[in-house]
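Board notes (copied after class):
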Amino acid sequence: MPMLIVLVALVDGQREITALDVTTADRLAALGVTHVTIARDQRTEAVVLDGWAFDAITHAAEASDLVGGEPRPRPCNPCCRS
C-alpha cells in the first residue's frame, strides 16, 4: 500500500533559500522528491519535501543535507494511504 511520507527540514533562517539549483533538484528527484515547499518566519525556514517515491525514512539525512537542513531531521508520520 503506497504511503506519502513528508520530510520537513529546518534551516537556519539567516540562510534564506529562494531557489534550488539544477544539481540539487536533480539529486532530490533521484531520491523520489517531486514537490518542494518553503515556509519561513523571522527565525526559521522549513523546507518540506515529498513525493510518492520518496522514502523519507531512508533518505532523510541526505535530503536534508541537500537543502542545508538540520543534520538529523525526522520524517513526519505517514499522512495518507491509498
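Comment from the instructor: DSSP finds two helices and five strands in the chain. The chain has a mean pLDDT of 76.
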